[in-house]
Each structure stands twice: as structure tokens, then as C-alpha cells.
């Protein structure tokens, strides 16, 4: 079977700045594979090992992201694909999903797509559902356990871990599955494998290759600011821990916090 | 396109608190948009919820009722919503930002070619145009979205962002719509409550522990009793979840849960940026740490510099005595 894993590069932490053109400035922050996407890659690898075939790691991004794509290749992905075009830069999540859907359609033989539940920078979780709808496929989001992938019977069964319940759902293949953090333990690629993939250049497909044009963002950012500072707090003083604790409880009661 | 359509979620047969909040804000937004506030109830049995939605101020409650809709599926509920959007032609559709509603709302927006904003904390209408405020990057960036004219907007709203509708309204009508023919690509085999579920996102008080507690035994000796004395839930930093002290379910932060309780007690949690991302909007924060330079003190309402191993037993005992627990 052919599994695609969608991945994105993100800054390791979110101590980002805002540029004057409202773009995000993550200069000086280490870049990593979006954490949830690492779990998606591991899940894809596990089912690829079981059923054979191809595992393509796919990013809509820029050349800089290739380094993270190579990490996925070192983990065991068999193929990679970068979607890159100047016209992709300012798309919203829904339009980006249409671009990725066009690529998956062009690949032609894809049975299953794994994504992370959301990126740790944008945090919307809209990509996987938007991709599924653009493809006209089933979606299983917030998956904490994939119970069965049955390429012959064309179905996938998984547990969706929601806030207070766990749903067990069977979807027809092809399908898009988004995964949460505790679904598996992503493997560390060996140094040997990292060296082996160090020079791989993923094939690049542009808007023209995909036949997508005239995409526009329905949602655009009109303002971007840092959060308002929290009012400055109070350090509780006292001669010893017991006195400080009493004073703290006084404050919590006085301010009707408890 | 005119007015607002609110997707009503239910808890135990009653309209969920977050839906009452959306009806409250929806009333104001609909007036600014010069259209009606309508509601949508989708499910197996919709009559009770529809009547409640009328009382919450809906001009028209659209209902789509079918045995296949009793349990949520993306295909079924999106098809029902598209039928209601066709009938109501809203400029703005509101739902909550729960996992299920993100599954639903993003799919709906994709099908409608709508503008989408997720985890919205504020909404405005200016000159007939909707704008939505949503944090990203762990709360370090506050974005305001505007939307392309002529396309509807789907906003998935963070709970407790708005005041609930007062209720007691009357005069609204209920319109039943048939479920359009739709291919159901998923089948729900089972829905089970999470065992020992900690719904941190709903807790009014959370006590979190971190590496400052030294080991797993100390975490369980000190944190749950303090949470219990406060009538709250207990959380954890990523460091100690990754170390296997506490299940992931309890993790607060960028890759765990985002919480905004009335009181957040951070005990031995230094305040890494990933952790702050998940709790910095808490209304009150108490930081307890022996390191006075810990970043958590910079966001704390009250800071107590001290060793958690000494402070927490004293605090738990004091609270039990003063609160009579």
C-alpha cells in the first residue's frame, strides 16, 4: 500500500517575534519536525512495515524544510515530495489543504494519509479535516490508537481520543488520519541512516505541476500582536515556610480565588 | 448572507454551556450584521434541545433529526449543517473549539469554501465585516483575522470566552430539515468514557507539578492531595510526563492541554515556554519554586519562594483546615 505522511517544520519553542509585515520571525530558534508529525511518521512506518509498499513524506514548504524531511527519510520513509511555489506563501490552511490534495491525487495510488493532530505553531488542527474534504475521503482525527489497517478490505479502524470519551471508528480507505502524542514512541534514526540520506533532494512539484491556480485565502491576518503583559504579581514574604503558606492562603481567600 | 447560525452541542440532554455562550455573543453579532440569530440542532432526538435554543434567543431553530445522527460522524453532521446553511444563509457560523467541533468545523468550512478561524477568543463586526481574534504560537502571538467578502465565516470558539445568553426568550420557531442523502464513510463502533478521565480543560482549579518534585513518589504524595484540598484537578509539566511519572492525559502545555482555570498552582514547575503556552491565560497563577529566578514567577499572581517538599504539605494542611475539607 502507499502511505503518505504530511509534515511541517516548526520552531522548537514559540518564543517568536512578529515582523513588520506581520509574518512570524523565528530566527535563532532551532527548527524541528512538528512534534505531532513525528508520531504520524512513526505510525506510517509501523503500517508500512506491516503491509509493505511506499511511505512518502510530503511537505508544502520551502527548501529549508528539506533537512527535516531527510530526518523522516532516515527514520524509514521510502520517498519524499516537496510542494514549493511562491504562490503557496500566503495561503490559509484550507487553501493549503487543496494544494496537498492535488499532490496526493497526482500521486494516484495513495491509500492512507497520516498527519499530526495540529502544528505546534499555528495550533488549529484544521489541516487534516480540510485535506480529507478536498480529497473526498474519510477522516479520523485525534487518533490515539490505530487498531487495524486492512488494505484488501479497504478499511481502517482506530480509536479517537476526545476530551472525555474514546470513540472506536471504522473508516473506508482511502482515508486521512490525524494522530495525537501518545499513540507510539517515534524512533531515533541511526547516524548511519542519517548519513545515507544526507544528500537526498526531494522531488519538487510546483503550482504548475499540480495544476492549481487561482487559490486564495478566505482568512487573512489583519493584525498580529504579542499578548498583553500579565499584571505584575506579588511575592509572598515571611519568616518561614509556615508563615508564607498562611499568608498565601489569606490572599487566596481575601481575593475570593478559592 | 445575513445573521448568525449557532451549532448547539448538548451535554446529558441539555444545551452545553459553551453553546449558551455562543448564543449570548451571537445575539450581539447578529444585530451588528443586521440579520437573525438562528440555531442548529443535529441529532437523533432534537425536540428538547430545540425548545431550549428558542429560550436562548434563536429566531429560527433548524433541526436535522435522524437515527444515524445520534452519534457524531463527520459526514452526517457536516451534511446536516450544509442543509441548514442552505436554509439560513448565515454570514457567520459559530461552534465550539472542542476536538469534535474542530473535526466538524474545518470539514464544513472546507466544503463551504468559507473563512475559518479556530480557537477564537473574541469576535467583532465592523461595517458588516466579521473579524476574529485567536491566539497562536502557544499564546505568544495574538492574531486578528479578517475574511474575504462574499464567503461565509466559520468560527470555532474557545469556551468561556463570552457570557451565556440570559434565556427566557420566546417567539422563535422550529424548522425541521431532512438529512440530505450522503455517503457515510465512517462507522462508529463504540463510544466509551475515558477511564479516570481528567477533564483538565473544564477544571476551575488545577495544581500542576514539575521536575522540582524530584521523583514520581513525591509527585503523588504532594500534588493530588493539594488538588483535592482545593477541589481541583492535577496536571503536570512535559518533563515529568516524558519521564513517565504521570500519564500524558495530565500534561499541560504546547503539546498537552491548554487550560485557563480560575486558579493554577504551579509547584516545582520552572515555567518553560512550552508549559506557559498551556496555562498563561489562567485567571490567577500561584508559583511555588525554590529558584526565585524561575520564569513562572514572571506570570504569577502570587509567588512563594520555597522548597515544594516543605511548602506543599504545609499548604495542603492549611487549606484543609481553613476550607474545612
Automatic annotation (TrEMBL), chain A:
Q: Which residues cross the membrane?
A: none
**Which Pfam families does the entry link to?**
ETF
Q: Where is each Electron transfer flavoprotein alpha/beta-subunit N-terminal domain found? A: 21-214
GO MF, one term, reads: electron transfer activity
- Supply the PANTHER family for this chain: ELECTRON TRANSFER FLAVOPROTEIN BETA-SUBUNIT, PROTEIN FIXA
Recorded protein name is: Electron transfer flavoprotein small subunit
Automatic annotation (TrEMBL), chain B:
Keywords, sorted A to Z: Electron transport, FAD, Flavoprotein, Transport
One MF term in GO for this entry?
flavin adenine dinucleotide binding
Xref: InterPro entries? DHS-like_NAD/FAD-binding_dom, ETF_a/b_N, ETF_a/FixB, ETF_asu_C, ETF_asu_C_CS, Rossmann-like_a/b/a_fold
The protein's required cofactor(s) are namely: FAD
GO terms (BP aspect): fatty acid beta-oxidation using acyl-CoA dehydrogenase
Organism domain of life: Bacteria
- The UniProt record gives the binding positions of FAD as 211, 237-238, 251-255, 268-275, 289
Specify the Electron transfer flavoprotein alpha/beta-subunit N-terminal domain's residue ranges: 4-188
Q: Which family does it belong to?
A: Belongs to the ETF alpha-subunit/FixB family.
Could you tell me what this protein is called? Answer: Electron transfer flavoprotein subunit alpha
What is the taxonomic lineage of the source species? Bacteria, Bacillati, Chloroflexota, Chloroflexia, Chloroflexales
Amino acid at each position: 500500500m502507499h502511505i503518505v505522511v504530511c509534515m511541517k517544520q516548526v520552531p522548537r519553542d514559540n518564543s517568536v517575534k512578529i515582523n513588520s509585515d506581520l509574518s512570524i520571525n523565528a530566527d535563532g530558534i532551532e527548527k524541528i519536525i512538528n512534534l505531532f508529525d513525528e508520531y504520524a511518521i512513526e505510525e506510517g512506518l509501523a503500517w508500512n512495515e506491516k503491509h509493505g509498499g511506499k511511505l512518502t513524506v510530503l511537505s508544502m514548504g520551502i527548501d529549508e524544510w528539506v533537512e527535516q524531511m531527510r530526518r523522516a527519510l532516515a527514520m524509514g520513509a521510502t520517498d519524499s515530495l516537496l510542494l514549493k511555489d511562491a504562490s503557496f506563501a500566503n495561503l490559509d490552511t484550507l487553501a493549503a489543504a487543496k494544494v496537498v490534495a492535488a499532490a496526493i491525487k497526482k500521486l494516484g495510488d495513495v491509500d492512507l494519509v497520516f498527519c499530526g493532530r495540529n502544528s505546534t505553531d499555528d495550533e488549529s488542527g484544521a489541516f487534516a479535516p480540510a485535506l480529507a474534504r478536498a480529497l473526498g475521503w474519510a477522516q479520523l482525527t485525534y487518533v490515539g490508537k490505530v487498531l487495524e489497517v486492512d488494505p484488501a478490505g479497504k478499511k481502517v479502524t482506530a480509536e479517537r481520543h476526545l476530551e472525555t470519551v474514546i470513540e472506536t471508528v471504522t473508516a473506508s480507505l482511502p482515508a486521512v488520519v490525524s494522530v495525537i502524542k501518545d499513540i507510539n514512541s517515534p524512533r531515533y534514526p541511526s547516524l548511519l541512516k542519517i548519513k545515507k540520506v544526507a544528500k537526498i533532494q526531494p522531488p519538487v512539484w510546483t503550482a504548475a505541476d499540480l495544476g492549481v491556480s487561482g487559490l486564495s485565502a478566505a482568512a487573512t491576518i489583519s493584525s498580529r500582536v504579542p499578548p498583553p503583559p500579565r499584571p505584575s504579581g506579588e511575592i509572598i514574604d515571611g519568616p518561614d515556610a509556615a508563615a508564607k503558606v498562611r499568608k498565601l492562603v489569606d490572599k487566596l481567600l481575601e481575593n475570593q480565588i478559592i | 448572507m445575513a445573521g448568525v447560525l449557532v451549532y448547539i452541542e448538548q451535554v446529558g440532554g441539555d444545551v452545553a454551556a459553551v453553546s449558551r455562550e455562543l448564543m449570548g455573543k451571537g445575539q450581539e453579532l447578529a444585530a451588528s450584521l443586521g440579520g437573525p440569530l438562528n440555531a442548529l440542532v443535529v441529532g437523533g432526538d432534537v425536540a428538547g434541545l430545540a425548545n431550549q435554543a428558542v429560550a436562548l434567543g434563536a429566531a429560527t431553530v433548524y433541526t436535522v433529526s435522524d437515527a444515524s445522527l445520534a452519534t457524531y460522524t463527520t459526514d452526517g453532521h457536516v451534511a446536516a449543517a450544509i442543509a441548514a446553511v442552505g436554509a439560513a444563509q448565515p454570514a457567520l457560523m459559530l461552534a465550539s473549539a472542542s476536538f469534535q467541533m474542530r473535526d466538524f468545523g474545518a470539514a464544513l468550512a472546507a466544503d463551504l469554501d468559507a473563512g475559518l478561524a479556530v480557537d477564537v477568543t473574541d469576535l467583532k463586526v465592523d461595517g458588516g465585516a466579521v473579524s476574529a481574534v485567536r491566539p497562536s504560537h502557544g499564546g505568544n502571538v495574538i492574531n486578528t483575522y479578517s475574511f474575504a467578502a462574499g464567503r461565509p465565516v466559520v468560527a470555532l470558539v474557545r469556551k468561556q470566552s463570552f457570557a451565556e445568553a440570559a434565556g427566557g426568550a420566546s417567539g422563535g420557531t422550529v424548522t425541521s430539515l431532512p438529512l440530505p442523502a450522503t455517503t457515510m464513510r465512517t462507522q462508529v463502533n463504540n463510544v466509551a468514557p475515558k477511564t479516570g478521565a481528567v477533564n483538565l480543560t473544564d477544571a476551575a482549579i488545577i495544581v500542576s507539578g514539575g521536575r522540582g518534585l524530584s521523583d514520581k513518589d513525591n509527585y503523588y504524595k504532594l500534588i493530588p492531595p493539594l488538588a483535592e484540598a482545593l477541589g481541583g484537578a492535577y496536571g503536570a509539566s512535559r518533563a515529568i510526563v516524558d519521564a513517565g511519572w504521570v500519564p500524558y492525559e495530565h500534561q499541560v502545555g504546547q503539546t498537552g492541554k491548554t487550560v485557563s482555570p480560575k486558579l493554577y498552582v504551579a509547584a516545582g514547575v520552572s515555567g518553560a515556554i512550552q508549559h506557559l503556552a498551556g496555562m498563561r491565560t489562567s485567571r490567577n497563577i500561584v508559583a511555588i519554586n525554590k529558584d526565585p529566578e524561575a520564569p513562572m514567577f514572571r506570570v504569577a499572581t502570587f509567588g512563594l519562594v520555597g522548597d515544594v517538599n516543605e511548602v506543599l504539605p504545609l499548604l495542603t494542611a492549611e487549606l484543609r483546615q481553613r476550607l474545612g475539607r
